[in-house]
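Our preliminary data section would be incomplete without showing what the modeling component actually yields. Below, a chain of 419 amino acids is followed by its predicted structure, encoded as tokens that our downstream tools consume directly.
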Amino acid sequence: MSTAKLSAAAVGAWLLVAVYYFYQYALRSAPSVMLPQLTEAFAVDALGVSAIVGMFYYGYSPFSLVAGAALDRFGSRQTIPIGAALVGVGALLFGTGNPALANLGRFVQGAGGAFALVGAGYLINRNFPASMAASFIGATQMFGMAGGSAGQFAVGPLISRGLGWSQFWICSGVVGLVIGLGLYFFLPHDAPAKSSARGGWSTLLTAMRTVFGNPQSILCGLISGLLFIPTTIFTMTWGVRFLQDARGREYESAVALAATVPIGWMIGCPLLGFISDKVGRRKPVILGGAVVLLGSLAWILFGDPAILRGPVVGILMGIASGAAMIPYTVIKEINPPQMGGTATGIINFLNFTFSALLGPVFGARLMAEPPAGADSDALALYQSGFQPLLWGVVGVIVLTFFLRETGPAARPIASARPV
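Predicted structure:
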């Protein structure tokens, strides 16, 4: 088979996994547009529905580690289709309307969903040159953010036009099973590295210990997480309320403005990955993204919206935050190549766990309700509550100087240095 055909097959395999990532991200965000229907169906209040929906993340976080280790041990064809099928089974369970099965279903969706991004990273690491790795990791995340948007802006109108919530989940479950079958038949027979194929689970534990024991891996997780949380915790969780309470925006306008941040992510993830591959370096792109993110976040919180406001600010913030995906490439380049899946799983675990732990902390800082109509007090509350995010981005800038440069342009220099 020619190199061109091999390349086309590799791109096709990655694209199919990217579609799987789009699918699981859409299901991850879909419950937000059907909360009234879910509240009635499960006979619980809004807090109870939130608890059921949140079970997704209890499966996603630990299974990021399982997914990476399993990929290194068994290869993509024996692993990734199972993840997609699990998401489908989880959707079917959620669609039953039984609270116990719905809890289990969301957990299973999260467990299966963890194999999507980790699986894409594994295929990129094995089948593409290092000079293209960051571009394809960014493009993969673009698929995910597009799925997250579709889970709200496409599913919402369907539900409002009469599509039953249960019917949506049952159909989605069937789609997941079909995607799993497609992945099984079209993913390549990529045998794991010999060092990973021998030794059973002890080898997997050794791989985890190796990656976790590398201080540079922890740096990658911290940098990615600190770049990620201004968008996930602030804009995507509290953005609409901030724009309403502190900036006096109407609900529809606030929703539209908050939605510009994931649009920026869809642009920034592949764009910054491409720039990183083009210049052959990782650290300058991370630093540039962090500086722009710091400026845009500071302007949103403390700037004068009469001077600069509207979609451009949110899109710029989303583009800059896309630098959070560059460490996904770095962590694979600073660890043994046969541990690429484990490395991706670990940074996914660190990134998500970091965001999950800090989310309630920032929520607690905003528990005090401002007096009705006191816009200045509301603005001060949000400024005080989210100011630590600015220090987090400053921390990224500092930590990046301690990160080892792994881009292709730096490797000849590194190899020329005396040992």
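The chain is about 80% helix and 0% strand. Residues 215-245 form the longest helix (31 residues). Preliminary results of this kind motivate Aim 1 of the renewal.
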